[in-house]
Design goal:
With about 375 residues, this protein is α/β, with parallel strands linked by helices. The protein has 12 helices and 13 strands. It starts with 16 loop residues before the first strand and ends in an 8-residue tail after the last helix. Bound molecules: pyridoxal-5'-phosphate (PLP). The site of pyridoxal-5'-phosphate has 13 residues, from helix 3.
Length: about 375
């Protein structure tokens, strides 16, 4: 029996090409599937509550010291713990604030709400136009928005759904400017796709220190294990210990631990996935350019397209071609679409459909 995708998550059942959820169309490492399958034979046993082997492997992979890495059921779950924890950590305030760029990953807002904190957005540049990417972020503007009540600064780098990123230099400016009592969270969910491109740098490459700096990674994107729910958070030992104490016991399943461990080792599969994604993103970008449609060519595994008209009918029109794309109304982006990179064949289908679907949108030059 298959599990039908909910309307909130995926395209309607039966959609041929699912480009709506920033998943990897290249699938998980075959070795990871094998490890997960083997782990199922022991499904009657509780998993390792501490995820010892996976944490050790991630500690090495991330260049960290013992105790500096925790894992959870995806970075979304880790954020749901880390943001409320950080809101209560620091000089007492009745009105804690979580600071993020406008149109950041939606979970930051949900976690702030759970913490009873105000969610404060820092405005970005406007939409893409012509050949120029949109939603440019300004580290100085974020620093200017800090108040005595700010307890968390959270940045998705690169960002979802805008694709915008801060360069290493800009990220350094931001982190260095945040007071020591404020937790800085950098969410690197798309790191593997962004590495080495257009000034992007992971926090680890920066010459920067902050006592409350947390960095998130996930196995859901380039490692293609979204259904298994595994992510990691790295930071100072005291903070990671406190965060790890908040999580549900036995949270990461044995199947997920086994798959993630092997996926981390399968560097060939990862390289093929990243290469295929960047190639597909380039072809999608070239096709949209040819059609004269502005878009943000972000560093994730997706593009953010400007329509200049309500997105809902355009989503419907793509659905008519069996292509599921993501409307962004929950982000206040009523005239934009996010389209994830697919396999080469899926990219062809998307580009083919786009020639008809985008023929009359107002942004077309
Ligand atoms: C910026 C960002 N962070 C985190 C996540 C969530 O990842 P996970 O599947 O690890 O919860 C996503 C997923 O879309 C994302 O775009």
């Amino acid at each position: 029996m298959s599990v039908a995708s909910s309307a909130a998550v995926g395209p309607p059942p039966g959609m041929k090409v699912r480009l709506s959820s920033n998943e990897s169309p290249f699938g998980p490492s075959p070795a990871a599937i094998e490890a997960a399958t083997a782990a199922l034979a022991d499904a009657h046993l509780y998993p390792d509550d501490q995820s010892i082997a996976l944490r050790a492997a991630l500690t090495t992979h991330l260049g960290r010291a013992e105790g500096e890495v925790a894992v959870g059921t995806g970075s979304a779950a880790l954020l749901m713990d880390a943001i409320p924890h950080a809101c209560a950590d620091g000089p007492p305030t009745d009105t804690p604030e979580v600071l993020a760029f406008a149109r950041s990953f939606v979970v930051y807002r949900l976690a702030a709400r759970n913490a009873g904190a105000a969610y404060v957005e820092v405005e970005t540049g406007g939409p893409a136009s012509g050949e120029t990417d949109g939603y440019a972020r300004d580290a100085e503007a974020m620093l200017a928005a800090l108040t005595d009540d700010t307890r968390v600064v959270v940045v998705d780098n690169p960002g979802n759904p805008t694709g915008a990123h801060l360069t290493g230099e800009e990220l350094t400016t931001l982190i260095e400017g945040v007071p020591a009592h404020v937790t800085v969270i950098v969410d690197e969910a798309y790191h593997e796709f962004a590495a080495g491109q257009r000034g992007y740098a992971t926090v680890r490459e920066l010459d920067v220190a902050h006592p409350k700096l947390l960095v998130l990674r996930t196995f859901s994107k380039a490692y293609a294990l979204a259904a298994l729910r595994v992510g990691s958070i790295a930071g100072p030992v005291d903070l990671i210990t406190a965060l790890d104490a908040r999580r549900t016991r036995f949270n990461v399943t044995a199947t997920a631990q086994a798959a993630a461990l092997v996926a981390l080792e399968d560097t060939d599969h990862l390289a093929r996935t990243v290469e295929g994604t960047i190639e597909g993103r380039g072809r999608m970008a070239a096709g949209l350019r040819e059609l004269g449609i502005p878009f943000t060519d972000g560093l994730g595994n997706f593009l953010t397209i400007e329509l200049g008209t309500a997105a809902a009918p355009v989503v419907e029109a793509y659905a008519g071609f069996g292509v599921g794309v993501r409307p962004l109304a929950p982000y206040g982006m009523d005239e934009q679409l996010r389209v994830s990179v697919g396999t080469p064949a899926e990219v062809n289908t998307f580009l083919e459909a786009s020639r008809t679907v985008l023929a009359d949108v107002p942004t077309r030059r």
